Amino acid sequence: MAANKIVVLGAGVSGLTTAYLLSKDPSNSITVLAKHMPGDYDIEYASPWAGANYLPVGKRGSDHEKWERNTWPALKELTEKHPEAGLHFQETIVYNRTKDQGSATGDWFSELVQKNPWYKDVVPDFQEIPADQLAPGIDNASKFTSVCINTAIYLPWLVGQCRRNGVVFKRAVLKHITDAANTPHLHHTGHKPDVVVNCTGLASRTLGGVQDAKLYPARGQIVVVRNDPGQMVSISGSDDGDDEVVYMMTRAAGGGTVIGGSYQKHQWDPLPDPNLAVRIMKRAVALCPALVREGQGIEGLDVIRHGVGLRPLREGGPRVEAERIGGVAVVHNYGHGGFGYQASFGCAEDAAALVQRVLSSRAKL
């Protein structure tokens, strides 16, 4: 039987996870085309800047919940059985302030900080923190075991798994999505692909044939430090603005602690704001004094770098669906906002199923 020829556009976590799952079927011949690859740091390439972790934010009963629910087993298995992938378990504490409801960060965290969230039966060791143990201003809190991902290790690991399964990686910049099928030799076999999988994230806003106006950025600014707070900690908002928040997580394998952050919708600025950076560090030390030695303020933080990433948000949620564009079969998997990693396997499984449906319908013709 002739191989199924597939092109995956995009080498962020969504594109790489989709290519990885598709590559497990030996009848699939896959080329990943991307402007940016793991190892690049560019404002257009969101995945390297992520924390990244598993803090579920999907609304109960939604596709988003399903995707996050279906991703946890894969992340847990990688953490337990594949240390080379760059994940580790971390004790996690989530604080909620009722007054943050309705703010940009409060809406983002609304499911995460529920007193009886759906994910309590998914993650290990979930428990509510008793009210008499909460600081003034904190209305409720919970703790559980989660994972933190060192993206500088994990993204190349995904590339390695794909290459082991025969996936070919190429640099390419396309103006129109049909170029992936109609430009000679973009698929490594030299033949026209049977299906194109679009995992271009925020770039789907301008990619010809897609031009999804529902996409927009939510700018996130971070500070990466050498300090280790000993826990993954987050809170629903801050008093510095409704799009500023506090979270911190220590990446596996010496990847440093990522401290955030911001959730600035429709903000494209690629440069770190030094004033915001100071606020981020002050909020982190105030929430988790264990970050620095006793008596030290932000001067006790050992900064590795400052960074900015643009989360690819989409009105109505991620787009995971199939269509035909200019005679080309396309499966979309983009628009994951700030939860690309923690929904990656769930979304990629659905996208891979859509690809299989397209290929099956073609085989019947």
Describe the structure.
Helices cover 24% and strands 27% of the residues. The chain has 365 residues and is of the alpha/beta class. The protein has 2 domains: 157 residues, Rossmann fold; 160 residues, D-Amino Acid Oxidase, subunit A, domain 2 (D-Amino Acid Oxidase, Chain A, domain 2), CATH 3.30.9.10. The strands form 2 sheets. Strands 3, 4, 5, 8, 9, 10, 11, 12 and 13 form a 9-stranded mixed β-sheet that branches. Strand 14 and strand 15 form a beta hairpin. The relative contact order is 0.21. The mean pLDDT is 96.
Helix and strand layout, with pairings?
Blueprint: E1 4-9, H1 13-23, E2 28-34, H2 63-81, E3 87-96, H3 104-108, E4 127-128, E5 140-149, H4 151-164, E6 168-171, H5 179-182, E7 195-198, E8 215-225, E9 232-235, E10 244-250, E11 257-262, E12 264-265, H6 274-287, E13 303-314, E14 319-325, E15 328-334, H7 344-364
Parallel strand pairs: 1-2, 1-7, 2-6, 3-9, 7-15
Antiparallel strand pairs: 3-5, 4-5, 8-11, 8-12, 8-13, 9-10, 10-11, 14-15
Helix pairs in contact: 1-4, 1-7, 2-7
Main location: other
Protein name: D-amino-acid oxidase
InterPro entries: D-amino_acid_oxidase_CS, DAO, FAD-dep_OxRdtase
